[in-house]
Amino acid sequence: MLECPICDATITVNNPKEGAVVVCEECDTEFELVQFDDEWDLLEVGEEDWEEDEDF
Asked: Were 26 and a residue from 9, 30, 34, 42 both cysteine, which residue would form a disulfide, CB within 3.0 to 4.6 Å?
């Protein structure tokens, strides 16, 4: 079970897979499942990766 970072609702994921998209039933926000240090986390779909290098 994961907690929605937007509305704090519980999101249940039965078979988590890296890159899968889940939707919070409370606020209808889409999240991508990502795994950090053997723990699952939610990344809002469309959210930019702040660690991305930009060439100028």
From this structure: 9
pLDDT in tens, 6-30: 999 999 999 999 999 999 999 999 9
State how far the Cα of 47 lies from the Cα of 30, in Å rounded to an integer: 10
CATH architecture of 2-44: Single Sheet (2.20)
Are 10 and 2 in contact by the 8 Å Cβ rule? The answer is: yes
Residue 4: name the closest of 45, 47, 42 by CA.
42
Q: Would you list the domain boundaries of the chain?
A: 2-44
| Model confidence pTM above 0.70 | yes
